[in-house]
Amino acid sequence: MSRFLFVLGSSRRDGNTEQLARHAARALPADVERQWLWLGDHPLPTFADTRHDNPLPPPTGNEKLLLDATLAATDIVIASPLYWYTVSNSTKAYLDYWSNWLRVREADFKARMAPKTLWGVTALAEDTSQAEALEGMLRRSAEYLRMRWAGVLLGNGSKPGDIRNDTEALTRAETFFLPARV
Ligand SMILES: Cc1cc2nc3c(=O)[nH]c(=O)nc-3n(C[C@H](O)[C@H](O)[C@H](O)COP(=O)(O)O)c2cc1C
Question: InterPro entries from the entry (predicted)?
Fold first, then answer.
């Protein structure tokens, strides 16, 4: 059974990125489980590179919550707005933590991430070409962990709700998750 984890990385609730992701998710089959986590509700401590501390203690608090949700998912959707041509700071922090989780023995992170699929959903105010770096970093991150990379759904908007005027993005959203059915 599929289980989608939506990692919401906007610094505001119910922004364009989240609205686009929720629109796309409505097309998922009813039996697909969904979990929505707004990173603002689960702030991570400032990242510290502890990969080489041996052994890494099992995570606690918000870090454990995010690790457990990540491992429980079959599909991870990074729903981050475009900030300075890449993901938001909370999204980047979440991804930085992946590198520590690779060293948590109990997590078996690399082996358990490999069968999963990584997706992206992003709203941006300017031209979609500005999302090249974001698309590249997510694709390369998937490749690094030997995950399947399913691409980024892009939509346009500046203030919350603008995404509803991007009818082309809404139409793309309605079939974006279709490959998940096979
Ligand atoms: C810190 C910051 C940086 C941004 N950088 C870009 C950018 O590089 N390119 C762009 O097109 N829009 C940029 N934007 C605009 C947002 O991507 C846009 O408002 C988007 O709709 C926000 O998504 P949200 O509604 O999900 O929060 C930026 C906005 C902020 C607050």
Answer: Flavoprotein-like_sf, FMN_Rdtase-like_dom, ISF_SsuE-like
